[in-house]
C-alpha cells in the first residue's frame, strides 16, 4: 500500500494540530477524512476543498462510542480500508484540584481518553483484519510530567500514553503499529487562551525559546505513520522542554 493509495482518519481536525495534520497527509494520500464535532463554515470548507479535493469531513462526537464506531465503519464501507488513524480530539477544563468539579474532571477524560479509545478500538479491528495499519495518538508533555491546574488534562494524556503502548503490543502480531506524539507548547487556540503569565513561564522552560507550530507536530505525526519499524513510542515535540 503506497502513500498515494492510503486512506486516513484524523479526529479533532477542525483547527490547530488536527487541521495541519489533515493538510500534511492530504498532500500524499488517496483520501483523508477529517472528523469534526461541528461542520466547518461554508467558507472554510470551500477553501480547504479547493486546495485538497481528496479531503472529506465527518461530523461525530468521539466521546460517544456508537458514533465513533459508525464513523470508522462508514469510512471502510466507502473506501474499502483504513490505513492510518490520528487520534487528536481533545479539550481542556483547567482548574486547581481543590476547585475542580467532578464533572469537569470527567468531561476531559471522556473526550481525551475515552474518545481516543472509542475510535482506536474499531480502527484497530479493521487494521488487524487488513494485517496493516498505523495509529498515532496525540498525547502531551503534560501527560509526562503533570502541570498545575491541569489534573484532568494530565491524567487523560497520561492515559493516552498507556493506551498507546498497550495497543502497540496487541496490534504488532498483525503488523499494526501504534505510537504517540507528545506536543509541548504549540501555537493553537488552546494555548492562546492561557493567561499571559502562564505563557511567559512556559516559554522560559523551552530551550529553543519559542512555541512550536501545528505544522511541526503534523510532520512528526506523518513520520510516525510512515516509519515501518517504530511502535509503542512516544515522540515529544516540545522544543526541548523534556530534556
Strand order of the largest sheet: 3-2-1-4-5-6-7
For the record, the CATH architecture stands as 3-Layer(aba) Sandwich
State the share of residues found in helices, binned by percent.
40-55%
- Work out the oligomeric state of the chains in this entry: single chain
Annotation, overall tally of beta strands? 7
Q: What overall geometry do the principal axes of the alpha carbons give?
A: globular
What is the straight-line distance between the termini?
36 Å
Largest sheet: 7 strands, parallel
List unreliable stretches of 5+ residues. none
Strand portion, in percent? 15-25%
Task: Please give the radius of gyration in angstroms.
Answer: 17 Å
The CATH superfamily is NAD(P)-binding Rossmann-like Domain
Structure annotation, total helices: 9
CATH topology: Rossmann fold
Task: Determine the mean pLDDT.
Answer: 95
Structural class: alpha/beta
Please write the string of helix (H) and strand (E) elements: EHEHEHEHEHHEHHHE
Organism: Lactiplantibacillus plajomi
Domain Ketoreductase: 6-196
Family: Belongs to the short-chain dehydrogenases/reductases (SDR) family.
InterPro entries: KR_dom (IPR057326), NAD(P)-bd_dom_sf (IPR036291), Sc_DH/Rdtase_CS (IPR020904), SDR (IPR050259), SDR_fam (IPR002347)
